[in-house]
Amino acid sequence: MKKAEIPNNEENRLKALREYKVLDTAAEANLDEITQLVSEICETPIALISLIDTNRQWFKSKVGLDVDETHRDISFCSHAILQEDVFEVQDALEDERFFDNPLVTGGPKIRHYSGAPLISSGGYKVGTICAISDKPKKLTDLQRKTLATLGRQVIRQLELRRELNVLKLLNDSKDNFLSDISHELHTQLNAIIGFNDVVLNSAEAEGFSESTTSYLQNIETGGVNCLLSLIPY
Known about the structure:
Helix content is 51%, strand content 16%. It is of the alpha+beta class and 233 residues long.
């Protein structure tokens, strides 16, 4: 068995993967439908959306397989993310890289593997969408093209997830900012109104003119009836 090399951009690749916040999340119907489509189009009993983490490959979506992850060292997908196009092994028993791989000699007894790298918008290969069979086979040109196309659809879904996460963070930050500003404005405005009320109550004793008293009353009315009602607390 030949273990795949670690990509030169591994640190940034893992960062890109984790920005999706998708590892160890529940199954999602939109991705499961894509995986099912891969199984049907490529005519294989197993199809996966596999994400390559530090020491494991984790399956975000799966058809025909019960496990959730395997070790990265034995994964075919670790080899696929080193490619630019669809990586295909027509017969694993005839390939020196895989003939004695535990996934070949034991369950699920892989003979055929084909995987298209999932390439992020930043150019990092975070995983694959792959088709697996326990019998040797060769994909047609149409099947290879379709597998790559569906891989791009998976990335679009992951990119959308990331954008929604960013928007949620921005909305939370905005709400916190507005809450802090509202609190500060209320505090300062209440102080101004309170001071104005004290001055207004002593206006007659201090001999203020009618115009000055009118200004103070306008501040009172504007502060209480307008400003405080416009600023949420």
